[in-house]
Amino acid sequence: MRVVQVTRFGGPEVLVPGEVPDPVAGAGQVVVDVSVAGITFVETQIRRGTDKWHDRPELPYVPGGVVGGRVRTVGAGVDPGWWGRRVIAGTGGSGGFAEQAVVTVGDLVVVPEGLGLPEACALHPDGSTALGLVEGAGIRPGEWVLVEAAGGGVGSLLVQLARSAGARVVAAAHGRRKLDLARELGAEATVDYSEPGWAKQVVEATGGAGPDVVFDGVGGEVGRAAFEVTTEGGRFSVHGAASGRATAIEPVEARRRGVRVLGIEQLFGFVPHKQRWAEQVLSEAAAGRVRPVIGQTFTLERAAEAHAMIEARRALGKTLLLV
Questions:
Q1: How many CA atoms lie within 13 A of 131 on its CB side?
Q2: What are 159-185's pLDDT values in tens digits?
Q3: How far apart (Å, rounded) are the C-alpha atoms in residues 123 and 39?
């Protein structure tokens, strides 16, 4: 079968098309005929060998942590009723950039009628992550919420979910296209965090008070500036490090400011709930209450171009490979 492999750690050019034997489902597993594969920013960092939060895979490896398609075969101990069903699933971190992928049956999520496989794949795992972040932050109606990287996969969903919770949203992103998208999704105000004085603009947009809740997916200087403008008694929720460094706030500083910090380690606690959140966000999308944003798609062989676009911060919403 056709795959794309990482042959060495480095830039997008290390993603090389190739051929490998078809996989076989083991006990408790299924093989999925892959129609679409998702891509996350952290996968580009793993490919470079710079990611700090995941074990470095052995070379060569097939990247791709999420796939959507139909169940082709089932292994021992798996209900044969799974055969032929439309599903999305996590692959355990690798194996998705391929025509077929082996998936543990417990990671399968059925795609509801009325929702396409690309749309479903665009919501997983970003939709589960966004739901978990919103639940953890405890957004209340009327609060101001600052969403960083609001034009990305998680960020675009956070804008929508915060609005659904009755919040007023300030969206922060880089570039007019992403800011326009955030307004289209319900953001009341937008700021470009590549421009000087953007944090001051956030304070002004919130009437001088600062945001009650911050969703920090960037880290670095952006995350630090966002913490500085979080209102006293607010919540500062960290879920990403697109800058290369997650925001770390000293507990004594958080207490002095009266800000509850939910660090990036909160993501480890999401695992037991990811199935429930995935089913919930797919149902919301099928009912038209959540809109997955697919900004660009590539064929399997053009995976290197997809990674390059994401790394260059030129991707809008979710980037998918169509297999």
A1: 22
A2: 999 999 999 999 999 999 999 999 999
A3: 11
